[in-house]
Amino acid sequence: MLGVHKFNPSLPGQGGDLSFCIVQMEGGTKEALQETYEKAGNTCLENGALEVFVADNKFASEKIWNMRRNWLEALKVVDPYVSTGDVVSPLSEISRMMEKIGKIATAYGVQIPCAGHAADGNIHPAPMKPEDIPLSDWKEMMEEILDKIAAFAVELGGAVSGERRARNRVRETEVARKDKGARSQTDARDQGRV
Fold it and tell me: What global pTM score does this model have?
């Protein structure tokens, strides 16, 4: 995971374009919990995971959660201009959402690391500024990338959340006001008042 090594240099599997899936489990007994995480780990390995790391103590658990909590700060070490989107994908469409983010990244020639919550479909894409793009052009390009990701999330039946939704709501309100004004003028003309 890009930049994460700055916060957790000893975590396994930190080279290249890898993904981490953090799963927190609970159990009534230590034995029941162990049985559950062994089944989950085997399922992950059977489905292409390169490695399973079990945090069997508070220190190891904190290292993993520290990575997740600080992922954006870690990215900012690599790219101080990085910003995140906030979309929600239907759970059954997360893989399609991630594939689309990958295609958008390729189309724009950027890296788009993501963090998210698989249990609720929340995804935070973080387009990173390429070195060859001037900062003056990056903001517009980044917004375009995040808008395309947001549009695809909605197309899949998901939603835009957080700040982007608020920004879009402002745009929609402005469009609705203009549309309402145009309809009022049309209605008035139709009724012979103009």
Answer: 0.69
